[in-house]
Amino acid sequence: MRLILASKSITRKKIMDLLNVKYDVVTSDEAEISNQKDPCKYVEELSLIKAKAVMKKINNTNSIIIAADSIIYANGKRYEKPKSIDEVISNIKELSGAKNQGITGVTLVDTSNGKILTFSCVTDVYFKNISYDDILWYSNHEEDLLKKAGYSLEGTMSLFVERLDGDYYNVLGLPLGKIYTKINELGYSLKDLD
Q1: What's the CATH code, domain 2-192?
Q2: Any catalytic annotation for residue 38?
Q3: What one-character DSSP code corresponds to residue 150?
Q4: CA-to-CA distance for 143 and 156, rounded, in angstroms?
Q5: Which residues 6+ apart lie within 8 Å of 82 measured at CB?
Q6: Phi-psi region of 171 (alpha: psi -120 to 50; beta: other; left: phi over 0)
Q7: How many CB atoms lie within 10 A of CB 150?
Q8: CB atoms within 10 A of CB 40
Q9: Which of 29, 69, 86, 133 is catalytic?
Q10: Could you tell me which of 10, 2, 5, 50 has the C-alpha nearest to residue 30?
């Protein structure tokens, strides 16, 4: 069974590499638009759009497509990829000292039978109070901030986490444990993925 990661995210590729299984990357060119208000349904719909677009691009009938979309959610607000460093600073100020949620929607497509599973994973992230000086330093030194939903726990931001409730990899954009559970539901195990 061939795994296809439907993402150009460097972080998702790094997470997939942890599995020590072969996979290919095929990205979607489809516009990602959702009018869903519920944050879980929002990311689920976006992941489904990506998965269906990649399904059209490949001719392989022996694959599992993995598509994902992630946001940070707090106080009724979706935090997606910021458009500027000023927006990063504003977002971190809002999230300082509070709970937020890393939410990832995932769609798996088994191309051998057309079965599609779409689900989401939520991880609660609790930040310590972050000083303005630390926010400024972070926003000027962390790599790829404008490519991540709100913040990245891979680097300096990890210093400000009080605790996580849930899957760490979910906050990074790919909840491996839940994905593997769903792959099992499709009838596959690790030996089928190599």
Answers
A1: 3.90.950.10
A2: no
A3: S
A4: 10
A5: 88, 91, 145, 146, 150
A6: alpha
A7: 27
A8: 18
A9: 69
A10: 50
Contact criterion met (CB below 8 Å) for 171 and 102: yes
CB 138 within 8 A of CB 92: yes
DSSP E strands, 32-168? 63-74, 77-79, 99-110, 115-127, 161-165
- Dihedral (Cα; 123, 129, 135, 139), 10-degree rounding: -10
Task: Give the N- to C-terminal CA distance of the chain in Å, as an integer.
Answer: 7
Q: How many residues does the chain have?
A: 194
pLDDT grade for 149, boundaries at 50, 70 and 90? low
Q: Is the pTM of this model over 0.85?
A: yes
Determine the Cα–Cα distance for residues 87 and 12; give it in Å rounded to an integer.
23
In the 3-class helix/strand/coil scheme, how is 21-58 assigned residue by residue?
CCEEECCCCCCCCCCCCCHHHHHHHHHHHHHHHHHHHC
Average pLDDT rounded to a whole number, residues 78-99 = 91
The CA radius of gyration of the chain, in Å to the nearest whole number, is: 17
Tokens of 181: 């559970």
Is the CB of residue 67 less than 8 Å from the CB of residue 47?
yes
Average pLDDT over residues 67-79: 94
**Chain-centroid distance, C-alpha 77:** 17
Over residues 154-183, the pLDDT tens digits come to 888 889 999 999 999 999 999 999 999 999
